[in-house]
Amino acid sequence: PEDFAFRNIKAIQVNPIIANVMFLGHDIEGYGGGFKRVFDICKENNIAYNYQITIQGFSFFFMREEAKIIGIQKPLTKESIFYDDIMKIMKSRDDLQGKELSELLDVNLRAMQRTLVKMEKEKLIKRKGSGRWTKWVLKSPK
Fold first, then answer.
1. What letter would DSSP give residue 133?
2. pLDDT tens-digit profile of 93-118?
3. Are 47 and 74 in contact (CB under 8 A)?
4. CA distance 119 to 64
5. How far apart are CA 116 and CA 23, in angstroms?
6. Pairing outcome for strands 125-128 and 135-138
7. What would the DSSP string read from start to end of 56-120?
8. If 0-12 CB within 10 Å is exposed, 13-18 middle and 19+ buried, where does residue 129 land?
9. Is the pTM value of this prediction over 0.70?
10. First vs last C-alpha separation in the chain
């Protein structure tokens, strides 16, 4: 990642069609300039980060203050990150709403709701109540 940010190496577009659609929809400003911005913002705001080089490329991990309080170091990747983090929080604070979890983990509410429903289908957690007052609890082992 540092080579892309500081040595002006061109990023490889894995899917140029998706990149173009995102650019035209104003979801991204451009292509290939994100790494430098990420490093600069982390430095300006004193945010600790790390990255791991993988077969597919690399993954970034940002250490957040609220995550340190409850002992979580949350990588910013897809839903696999949520499962462990949600379980850790629910072990210490059961009976939580999706909104509370999304705020604790600094995750989009809708993404959190989708993840909670998936976890319910996998029988990891269970729902109490419905609609706006839905709360989530750990499923008790049998």
1. G
2. 778 888 888 888 877 888 888 888 88
3. no
4. 24
5. 31
6. antiparallel
7. SSEEEEE--HHHHHTT---BSSSTHHHHHHHHHHHHHS-SB-HHHHHHHHT--HHHHHHHHHHHH
8. exposed
9. no
10. 46
